[in-house]
Amino acid sequence: MLRPITLSLAVALAAAAPVLGQQSAPATAATTEPRETIEGTLSQDRTVIAVPAFATPQVETVAGLRTDSLGRQIADVIAADLERSGLYAPIGPGSLRAISMSEVTAPRFADWRARNAENLVHGFVRASGTGGLIVGCYLYDTALGSELVRQGYEIQPGDWRRAAHKCADAIYARLSGEAPFFDSRVAYIAESGPKGNRIKRLAIMDSDGGNHRFITNGQALAISPRFSPDYKKIVYVSYLNNRVRVFIYDIDNGTQKLVTESGNATFAPRWSPDGRQILFSMAVGGNTDIYRVSAEGGTPVRLTTAPGIDVGGSFSPDGKKIVFESDRSGSQQLYVMNVDGSDQRRISFGGGRYATPEWSPRGDLIAFTRLGGGEFRIGVMTPSGGNIRMLTNSWQDEAPTWSPNGRVIQFFRTTPGREGKSSLWQVDLTGVNLRRLPTPQDGSDPSWGPILP
User: Fold this and answer.
1) Minimal CA–CA distance to 202: which of 453, 449, 445, 403?
2) Fewer beta carbons within 10 angstroms: which end of the chain, N or C?
3) pLDDT grade, residue 18 (50/70/90)?
4) What is the pTM of this model?
5) Closest to 403 (Cα-Cα) out of 81, 46, 4, 51
6) What is the pLDDT of residues 365-408, one digit of tens each?
7) Which of left, alpha, beta for 62 (phi over 0: left; psi -120 to 50: alpha)?
8) What is the C-alpha separation between 42 and 131, in angstroms, rounded?
9) Which residues contact 260 (CB under 8 A, 6 or more apart)?
């Protein structure tokens, strides 16, 4: 649980407690922090932001977590989020002095200007007195000496990373003017075992790889996960005992519901924007077409009838259009149709083949995999097929999925060879902020969900 609070009250309560000056107590790790692999060249014009460890009025232990250690770890997560955006160059918290509670709302701006910090993040963490924690977060403009953001949250101890992501989201939104994306989650397929007999499990984690957990146990092959628009469910395909079934998994209560089952190969389920319909692809008699079925189950409606392989529908954000791939012209290309299957028209031309299209949540772009020259690369185009830009250049990158704000794309990369490994990566629309996401096993087929409420 994470509940926004009025921060002025929280500060008053915190200020009444004894002030902790220099936080010299050794940090006790609450969790193992994810580690990223970074490639590409980041912008040289990134904004420098100082993020010292969050202060605490007194060292308290809540659910086994020390408030002083959490102050350092929350600052670590915020700094990592901002650095991950590619727009900012955070300094701290390890290289910075700890701040006192009195400094949280009265920064020493001259000190930070001397370190060339254009912005400054201050905050505090304290016990709530009811078994939870209160986290406060402030963003300052060091040149003007003014406050830009003030956020406060009452959280359960296990949600401390969410408080850090919410703080980073508020900073990102204020400074960039863009919608945030840090407090979100990723579903994906965790892979293990030999290449010819892979165990594929449904898994979920924070957008930075933290709080990882497996959803399925590997007894049945799981593929093609996708978050529901309300973030409460995941649709995916299960191959238990060679029965092909589309399930909806409820994240809150851990139950799942059967949507459709077939003796035919079924794959690529996708939600409609209102969460009421699900697209999927099914191969019948040598022909693969796209179908639509109610999320409550029922009789599927066939949307495509052209000879060939029609796969991978993705709704436009307004729910009026669907983009999909088809080889009806002789090679894989991208097509757009109305939601009822009418007015099907090709939008990809030029060299190579095109696959796995995903409509941006902004509606302005379609991400895709382009196959050509022995390589799979990730790119974007407008919904009419124009302004194609390739964002990655590796041997095999595929299956793009968008961040909630439509500015970053995740995908999976496979290395060559019989023992080739798959891993999750992300790149922003500049194509230079390329990072590998940490996962405990190999990973494929990511699905980036919306911002958590």
Assistant:
1) 445
2) C
3) very low
4) 0.88
5) 81
6) 999 999 998 999 999 999 999 999 999 998 999 999 999 999 99
7) beta
8) 42
9) 245, 246, 266, 280, 293, 297, 300
Mean pLDDT, to the nearest integer, of 302-318? 94
Confidence of residue 312 (pLDDT cuts 50, 70, 90): confident
Nearest to 354 by CA among 376, 321, 328: 376
Under 8 Å between Cβ of 108 and 47: no
Q: Hey, what are 164's tokens?
A: 């850090």
Structure tokens at 345: 């028209």
> Tokens 């500060």 map to which residue?
11
Residue keyed to tokens 């977060």: 137
The per-residue pLDDT for range 234-257, each reduced to its tens digit, is 999 998 887 899 999 999 899 999
